[in-house]
Design brief:
Elements: H1 20-30, H2 34-46, H3 50-62, H4 70-82, H5 86-98, H6 106-118, H7 122-134, H8 142-154, H9 158-170, H10 178-190, H11 194-206, H12 214-225, H13 230-242, H14 250-262, H15 266-276, H16 281-296
Helix pairs in contact: 1-2, 2-3, 3-4, 4-5, 5-6, 6-7, 7-8, 8-9, 9-10, 10-11, 11-12, 12-13, 13-14, 13-15, 14-15, 14-16
């Protein structure tokens, strides 16, 4: 089972622009003196400086140096976005997506993402691809999703690389091409993206788009599992249960499968049920203890 597309809408951060007064505000912001930054940028924003409007909007959105006020953030983002600030356009799209400070409006969200995406903002391109994937605020179109994912992936965004890989993997919006999918998963996985790592591990395990290599599959599953990917944890456990690509170790198998199941993975629940029949009570106790310890260590060095 491949990981599905993930809906991730992240707010962008303040920008650094030129100008003596803006520079003073930027220096204050970078030093953590948010109140001074807000005081310096406020008159610039009132005078129509789009970067100051955008940065001040971020501060009101996050409550940095000012009281958190999403409606004021929306107003400032809108003033900046109308002037063409791609970061403000993007953030306004996020706020409309979630209904933060404005009524939730997926269509408005898509319109602002489009404006930002057309200016080359990689995160907006990615989010627009997500919207076309899900038909959220736009008519569903895997062709358009692939087009926007590619623009974002070409800029190195690991989420977009992974999602474009899924489209090639499944032949949606693009011709099916397992080798191209693997290429994109590799790019995403190399940047540490857990879903890309899991999908790459799966391709190595089943031998799609690349030669079957269970040792490589186990390595990528582990990298993903350590970041909390439930599917990777379950698949890694299955490899340990058969000694495929890793030494046979049913205790470690049950540990990983138990961890995945404890977070609601139904496939792991079924694998756990099967594995328990093959193990002694001592092994089960040990695996449960290791699972608790692993969770406490945030899945690292388990």
């Amino acid at each position: 089972m491949r990981n599905r597309f993930l809906l991730v809408f992240l707010l962008s951060f303040p920008v650094h622009a030129l100008g003596d007064e803006f520079e003073r505000g930027w220096s204050a912001y970078k030093s953590g003196d948010y109140l001074s930054a807000a005081v310096i940028w406020e008159p610039l924003a009132k005078n129509g400086d789009s970067d100051a409007q955008y940065n001040l909007g971020v501060m009101f959105e996050q409550g940095l140096g000012v009281d958190k006020d999403l409606e004021t953030a929306v107003s400032l983002y809108r003033q900046s976005a109308i002037q063409g600030n791609k970061g403000a356009q993007y953030n306004l799209g996020v706020l409309y997506e979630y209904g933060w400070g404005v009524p939730k409006d997926p269509q408005q969200s898509a319109e602002w993402f489009l404006k930002s995406a057309e200016q080359g903002f990689a995160e907006a391109q990615y989010n627009l691809g997500l919207k076309y994937t899900e038909g959220n605020g736009v008519e569903q179109s895997f062709t358009n999703a692939a087009r926007w994912y590619k623009k974002s992936a070409d800029q190195g965004l690991m989420n977009a690389q992974c999602n474009l890989g899924i489209l090639y993997d499944e032949g949606k919006g693009v011709p099916r091409d397992d080798k191209k999918a693997v290429e994109l998963y590799k790019l995403s996985a190399a940047q540490g993206y857990a879903e890309g790592q899991y999908n790459l591990g799966l391709m190595y395990e089943i031998g799609e788009g690349i030669g079957r290599n269970l040792e490589a599959a186990a390595r990528w599953y582990l990298a993903s599992a350590e970041q909390g990917n439930l599917s990777a944890q379950d698949n890694l456990g299955v490899l340990y249960s058969f000694g495929s690509g890793v030494p046979l170790d049913k205790v470690k198998a049950l540990m990983w499968i138990t961890i995945s199941a404890s977070y609601g993975n139904e496939f792991a629940e079924e694998n756990k049920r099967i594995l328990l029949k093959e193990m002694s009570s001592e092994q089960i106790i040990e695996a449960n203890q290791l699972a608790v310890s692993c969770i406490r260590k945030s899945f690292e060095q388990c």
